[in-house]
Amino acid sequence: MDVMVEPVNRSRRSGRASGERSTGDARRDRWRKHRIARRAEFVEAALRALDEHGPDLGMDDVASAAGVTKPVLYRHFEDKADLYLALGHRGTEILFARLIPAINAELAPLPRIRMALEAFFSVIEEHPNLYRLLARRGFPDRPVDADVVAEDKELIATALTALLGDYLRMLNMDSGAAEPWAHGIVGMVQNTGEWWLEKRTMSRDSVVEYLTQIIWAALDGLTRQHGIVLDPHKPLDANKVVMLKRRPAPDRTGEPS
């Protein structure tokens, strides 16, 4: 069973990152595609600047990484908050590109849990300043009215609720446990990730393994209470999957001046 989960919509400021929709005007369509491509280039430059300068980076740092002047940068972003939201959108893409295949892998329960956790921790390890920036929710000079980390957390928990619910029903168990279970797992993983990112008292492999065992122990304990014993190293009879689809943002790519 596939479950389509629609995320909450990003702030309207993120609209310039929208997909390419034809207007029937070839010149306008070429301009829109150009602006979408340029904006994406600047977001990648901002990621590089984040690696170098940390979450307190300025627009000067992003412009320098992109090899342009600030006025050029401001043709594609309304302000620093607009850039923040574009970075949030990109961070979500990076995370979901790894997380969704892991969650949907046709593996036994234990390696499937481990693979999903590895996906999350690999992203925050490779992009620690991006995660710190998004978790902080804003810039010193202007707050942002969107919580990217919370939105993604809600989306993942909703998808996990659907996945766990399918498995509980398959095992003839009460699927009402799926929602609090899913939110509990997601919250634990996020909090542990933030702790690990700041403390680094153990390796990524170690924290992933500890969390894998904790989550499996909870799942195993619940099923055993109902007389069901699952083999952690044997795939279940049916591979339940989820599909996450981002709602297209409004088209605000602008017109040539």
List keywords for this structure.
TetR_C_32; mainly alpha; 257 residues; disordered N terminus; Tetracycline Repressor, domain 2; transcription cis-regulatory region binding; DNA-binding; single chain; 9 helices; 61% helix; Arc Repressor Mutant, subunit A; 4 strands
Describe the protein's architecture and organization:
This protein is mainly α and 257 residues long. It has 2 domains: 48 residues, Arc Repressor Mutant, subunit A, CATH 1.10.10; 150 residues, Orthogonal Bundle (Tetracycline Repressor, domain 2). The strands form 2 sheets. It has a two-stranded parallel sheet. Strands 2-3 form a two-stranded antiparallel sheet. The protein is elongated and about 65 Å long. The chain starts with a strand and ends in a 13-residue tail after the last strand.
Q: Return the string of H and E elements.
A: EHHHHHHEEHHHE
Number of helices: 9
- Any idea what the CATH architecture of the largest domain is? Orthogonal Bundle
Distance between the termini: 49 Å
Helix content: 55-70%
Query: Which structural class do you get from the secondary structure elements?
Result: mainly alpha
The strand count comes to: 4
Strand content: under 5%
Overall body shape: elongated
Sheet with the most strands, sense and barrel status: 2 strands, parallel
Strand order, main sheet: write it out: 1-4
Mean pLDDT: 84
- For the record, the CATH class of the largest domain is Mainly Alpha
Region (Disordered): 1-30
DNA-binding region: 58-77
Domain HTH tetR-type: 36-95
Biased composition (Basic and acidic residues): 18-28
